[in-house]
Write a structure and sequence with these properties.
Radius of gyration: 24 Å
Strand content: under 5%
CATH class: Mainly Alpha
Order of helices and strands: HHHHHH
CATH topology: Four Helix Bundle (Hemerythrin (Met), subunit A)
Shape: elongated
Structural class: mainly alpha
Length: 157
């Protein structure tokens, strides 16, 4: 009586590496290098969306400054609030898997930086406004960079 050996007599190193890389994954999941790129892109997307959401929280300074003794025009506070809410809506849409979420978040952060952020430094504003606008712009632009690099990583995969 002969017993079949479950281990093949000749196993190439390449096949062994493929088996190790796919252990525990469902069939058709993909190679290890491709899934690593996808995971990196997802981490960058999550990081970028988080940074954009934090940046949107700094848009509150436009609304708070309306209560000061020398407030900016009302449209500045209202526009600041609308751009912050637009960013949060884009983040929520992106987290739910909607395609328009990331472009909405990027667009509102760019608009906030260009239309509200940069002009702040050319008018006389309190120091706390400069700090909140600066932190919000750095967070927003860093979030945009993370989202853009995630897009590039997905395109390369």
């Amino acid at each position: 009586m002969s017993v079949a050996c479950p281990i093949p007599s000749v196993v190439s190193m390449e096949n062994a590496e493929k088996r190790v890389a796919t252990v525990g994954r469902p069939a058709g999941y993909g190679s290890a290098s491709r899934s690593g790129t996808k995971g990196t892109a997802m981490n960058r997307t999550t990081t970028g969306l988080t940074l954009c959401a934090l940046s949107a929280a700094f848009n509150v300074d436009g609304v708070i400054s309306l209560g000061e003794s020398d407030p900016p025009p009302a449209f500045v506070g209202i526009l600041s609030a609308l751009l912050g809410l637009g960013t949060l809506a884009g983040v929520l849409l992106a987290l739910r898997g909607r395609r328009g979420g990331v472009p909405l978040a990027i667009g509102t952060r760019l608009a906030s930086a260009a239309v509200l952020g940069v002009p702040t430094y050319f008018i006389g504003a309190p120091a706390w406004v400069y700090v909140t606008v600066g932190v919000g712009m750095v967070l927003g632009l860093t979030g945009i960079a993370a989202l853009w690099s995630a897009r590039e990583a997905r395109a390369a995969a």
